Amino acid sequence: MFTRVKLHAVGGPQVLQFEQVQAQAPGSGEVWLEQTAIGVNPLDLSQRSGAVSIPLPSGLGLEGAGRVMAVGAGVTRVQVGDRVAYATGPLGAYASGRLYPAERLVKLPPELTSEAAAALLFKGITAQYLLKTTYPVGPGSRVLIYGAAGALGQLMVPWAKHLGATVIGVVSKPQSVERARQAGCDTVLVFEAATLARQVVEATHGHKVDVVYDPIGRLSFEASLDSLRPRGVLVSFGAASGVPEPVSVGTLNAKGSLFLTRPSLAAHTATVDEYQGRAADVLAACAAGIIQPRIWQRYPLAEVARAHADLHDGRAQGAIVLLP
């Protein structure tokens, strides 16, 4: 028997329910995975709470790693026994075993553990498309990264530095400043909505930044806009503090012909080739030592509610991994 988390209603961590299931025979193009590690991401919390709508009932989780135990008809990309990971839907990663589309699996190199893969792939692909596609960071770029001490920030900061950027990191509390510095930030600011933009102006000697990567949302939106140089880009890719208020196009003009985008991982991994290419770039960056997964805590799958609570309350200092 295998265990999986099922969501029948949205709400707090207490709505996460467990059920026992038998191993299932994979259909055409599918595999049956026995999972050894599962990644926890802020999007999981938004889906569980109802802030991001999903059809119910539903599984939960978009990132996992394990071993292929059975393959369905037409599967050629992987075979029984392969160590694999994934970082996109269908939902249902919170499980000890599951069916999954073979074409979305990523083979793991021998030196990368399942736990490291489950901490790396979703966040790594997010960092990859943000830094290389949404705004192509390069030598001389000035970037502002919120959450610089968090699990995603600890990937984005060193990768941006490797690409040649000057990085200003933003953290939520003074205790996180040193961790952001160790990640590679040139400057670290403790977030205060009323003063952040002025601090960015001072840190850049009046130039401001080329791009702001903002997963905070409502609370930080105005400060992010005001931190951009003319024709700068605000990448609003999350809403930890709520969805920002609508912005007038005239405001973007008045603040310097700014660009505003709201990207998603799904739109940047829509085809198998794009998904596999981004995943390969993440694994190559990890192998080269440019980025490394930073696991803060491991929880048994049975304690997923505690993992969600710790992430929601801001206690996490890196990636969270569930162990079936």
TrEMBL record:
<dbReference type="InterPro" id="IPR047618">
    <property type="entry name" value="QOR-like"/>
</dbReference>
<comment type="similarity">
    <text>Belongs to the zinc-containing alcohol dehydrogenase family. Quinone oxidoreductase subfamily.</text>
</comment>
<dbReference type="Pfam" id="PF00107">
    <property type="entry name" value="ADH_zinc_N"/>
</dbReference>
<dbReference type="InterPro" id="IPR036291">
    <property type="entry name" value="NAD(P)-bd_dom_sf"/>
</dbReference>
<dbReference type="Pfam" id="PF08240">
    <property type="entry name" value="ADH_N"/>
</dbReference>
<dbReference type="InterPro" id="IPR011032">
    <property type="entry name" value="GroES-like_sf"/>
</dbReference>
<dbReference type="InterPro" id="IPR020843">
    <property type="entry name" value="ER"/>
</dbReference>
<dbReference type="InterPro" id="IPR013154">
    <property type="entry name" value="ADH-like_N"/>
</dbReference>
<dbReference type="InterPro" id="IPR013149">
    <property type="entry name" value="ADH-like_C"/>
</dbReference>
<keyword id="KW-0521">NADP</keyword>
<dbReference type="GO" id="GO:0070402">
    <property type="term" value="F:NADPH binding"/>
</dbReference>
<dbReference type="GO" id="GO:0035925">
    <property type="term" value="F:mRNA 3'-UTR AU-rich region binding"/>
</dbReference>
<keyword id="KW-0560">Oxidoreductase</keyword>
<dbReference type="GO" id="GO:0003960">
    <property type="term" value="F:quinone reductase (NADPH) activity"/>
</dbReference>
<dbReference type="GO" id="GO:0005829">
    <property type="term" value="C:cytosol"/>
</dbReference>
<protein>
    <recommendedName>
        <fullName>NADPH:quinone reductase</fullName>
        <ecNumber>1.6.5.5</ecNumber>
    </recommendedName>
</protein>
<feature type="domain" description="Enoyl reductase (ER)">
    <location>
        <begin position="11"/>
        <end position="322"/>
    </location>
</feature>
